[in-house]
Amino acid sequence: MQTEEIIQLKRFGEKLRMLRNHHHVTLQWLANKLNYTTHSYLSEIESGQKVPTTFFVLKVSRLFDVSTDELLKDEFELDLENSRICEN
Question: Is residue 88, in this structure, part of any structural domain at all?
Answer without folding.
Answer: no
